[in-house]
From TrEMBL:
<dbReference type="InterPro" id="IPR052016">
    <property type="entry name" value="Bact_Sigma-Reg"/>
</dbReference>
<keyword id="KW-0378">Hydrolase</keyword>
<dbReference type="GO" id="GO:0016791">
    <property type="term" value="F:phosphatase activity"/>
</dbReference>
<feature type="domain" description="PPM-type phosphatase">
    <location>
        <begin position="310"/>
        <end position="526"/>
    </location>
</feature>
<dbReference type="InterPro" id="IPR001932">
    <property type="entry name" value="PPM-type_phosphatase-like_dom"/>
</dbReference>
<dbReference type="InterPro" id="IPR035965">
    <property type="entry name" value="PAS-like_dom_sf"/>
</dbReference>
<protein>
    <submittedName>
        <fullName>SpoIIE family protein phosphatase</fullName>
    </submittedName>
</protein>
<dbReference type="InterPro" id="IPR036457">
    <property type="entry name" value="PPM-type-like_dom_sf"/>
</dbReference>
<dbReference type="Pfam" id="PF07228">
    <property type="entry name" value="SpoIIE"/>
</dbReference>
Length: 529
């Protein structure tokens, strides 16, 4: 046989087995010089190269190329390209004929080319170049194809992109029950890897997804199970290995029939399941923290006392955002002289520590106010000293107000208050007008023990209402504070006929579930004459 194939390596026997005279190339000894030179160059390369020769594009390739075509070898050697690659011919056929017709070389990167090379039609990607080979007259007599497979890189990048998007989408989920729904929405957007997918949580009803209800074979404690079914190749991936095997939470997916169920595919499914599990654990932990913090906060916020002709209503509403239970509080209590003391404050922070600090500060205010029986400014100054001496290391805003009978001969009540860096209270007059009780706020609590504080006074006529609140009622991202305060006045104006309880409901109802922070609210009204 010809020495032309001496560098064919393990393909030498395959070359010798081909009846080249039965092909359009003819006997090897009669091959044209340009073909012999191209074959010699190709067989001396370790890079995947094939020649596609003549108008029939007969295949002649090297050892490295066999790794790209799988079980198409050895039948592909000496065969027509269109006969070997019918599944890809609509893509490569026009390109090859363009090169043969003198249109010049081509080059494509990571082009999708389906190949049937492992017993099924496989999703594949290749970067390749078709270059013309000329004879002595300059005519194109064949094509040299230099190829590299990029299937693995393309699929890995696609899966990493999906995992990144899944993590980002699940990071915004705030309730455990929403995790499976959002995860399935993301996963179903990439049908190349997951033609059908579902997340099944233990104890919840199964949705109709076209996937089997349960595996035919039992699941182990933590392993992924892949089964061949009438619906296709189905993978069952445990979400929570610690759950009992029976009735456990699962990721169920029908695998692509164009991809082999190799270890990379199964590892990808495990990563998907892990992302969902981590999101559920994280959200569950946040919900538990929120529930605990809210329970703690509500346990510290008692109902106001009866105060003669005064009607007091209070509310606490946690933020719409899951983790935003914080340090807002209200309080109302009677002093020994019968005057009513009211406090609305906000400890900096949004966690269990803030809620606990709020309870500590609330009790300090009560103790200082009850023991001193002084004006609001002196009570807050006493609170500053108590916080400093007792090492209560928090910062808070607050309005402390007192209502006492007016001087002899006058109707109504005298309102006195002191403001430690807090939003201004609102006076809703009996005639329906509303105005801010704006003063120059004093320093926040907890910053300076000997800071100077001021008192402010106002006559409260029968039927007038005082509204004290925390910033969660008015502050909004991107909205100037003054605009939010004007909004509050607009919401209150003309609502003087609403009882204090209904007025609280009206104010909180304006938030419509959009509260970005928790809200403490206190409304007190002097009985109409």
């Amino acid at each position: 046989m010809s020495d032309l194939f001496r560098h064919a390596g393990t393909l030498r026997a395959d070359y010798d087995a081909v009846d080249w005279s039965a092909t359009t190339l003819g006997p090897v000894d009669g091959w044209a010089p340009e073909l012999r030179s191209a074959v010699d160059l190709m067989l001396n390369s370790r890079f995947p190269i094939t020649l596609l020769w003549g108008r029939d594009l007969v295949l002649v390739y090297n050892e490295a190329y066999t790794e790209l075509i799988g079980d198409k070898h050895p039948a592909a050697l000496g065969a027509r390209t269109e006969d070997v690659f019918p599944e890809a011919w609509d893509v490569i056929g026009p390109m090859l004929h363009g090169v043969l017709d003198g249109e010049g070389p081509t080059w494509v990167e990571s082009a999708p080319l389906p190949l049937e090379r492992k017993g099924f039609l496989e999703e594949c990607f290749f970067t390749f170049a078709y270059s013309p080979v000329h004879d002595a007259s300059g005519a194109v007599t064949g094509i040299i194809d230099i190829s590299t497979e990029t299937t693995s890189q393309v699929i890995v990048a696609r899966r990493l992109q999906l995992l990144t998007r899944l993590a980002a989408e699940l990071a915004a989920v705030e309730h455990v029950d929403d995790v499976p729904r959002r995860a399935v929405e993301v996963l179903r957007s990439v049908p190349d890897d997951l033609p059908a997918v579902d997340v099944r949580l233990r104890g919840l009803p199964l949705a109709s997804t076209g996937l089997p209800l349960r595996p035919r074979h039992g699941l182990s404690i933590s392993d992924t199970l892949v089964e061949e079914t009438e619906e296709g190749r189905i993978a069952w991936v445990p979400l929570t290995p610690s759950e009992p095997v029976v009735g456990r939470s699962l990721l169920v997916a029908r695998l692509s029939d164009r991809l082999a169920p190799d270890q990379g595919y199964l590892d990808f499914l495990v990563l998907v399941a892990a992302s969902i599990t981590q999101a559920m654990d994280r959200v569950a932990a946040r919900e538990a923290e929120r529930t605990l913090s809210e329970a703690l906060q509500r346990s510290l916020l008692t109902q106001p006392p009866g105060a003669g002709d005064l009607v007091v209503a209070v509310r606490y509403q946690p933020a719409a955002e899951l983790a935003q239970v914080g340090g807002d509080w209200y309080d109302a209590f009677l002093l020994p002289d019968g005057s009513l003391t009211m406090v609305v404050g906000d400890v900096a922070g949004h966690d269990q520590d803030a809620a606990a600090s709020m309870g500590q500060l609330r009790n300090l205010v009560r103790g200082v106010a009850y023991s001193l029986q002084e004006t609001p400014s002196r009570v807050l100054s006493g609170l500053d000293h108590a916080m400093d001496g007792l090492a209560v290391d928090v910062v808070a805003t607050a309005v402390l107000a007192q209502l006492a009978p007016a001087v002899a001969g006058q109707d109504g009540l005298t309102l006195s208050w002191s403001n430690a860096g807090h939003p201004p209270p609102v006076l809703l007059a009996a005639d329906g007008s509303a105005r801010l009780l704006e003063t120059t706020p004093d320093l926040l609590l907890g910053l300076q023990a000997d800071t100077s504080r001021s008192d402010h006074t106002l006559a409260l006529a029968p039927g007038d209402s005082l509204v004290i609140y925390t910033d969660g009622l008015v502050e909004r991202r991107g909205v100037p504070l003054q605009e939010s305060l004007d909004w509050l006045l607009g919401v209150l104006e003309g609502r003087q006929s609403l009882p204090p309880e209904e007025l609280c409901n009206h104010l909180l109802g304006q938030l419509d579930g959009r509260g970005e922070d928790d809200v403490a609210l206190l409304v007190v009204r002097s009985a109409a004459a």
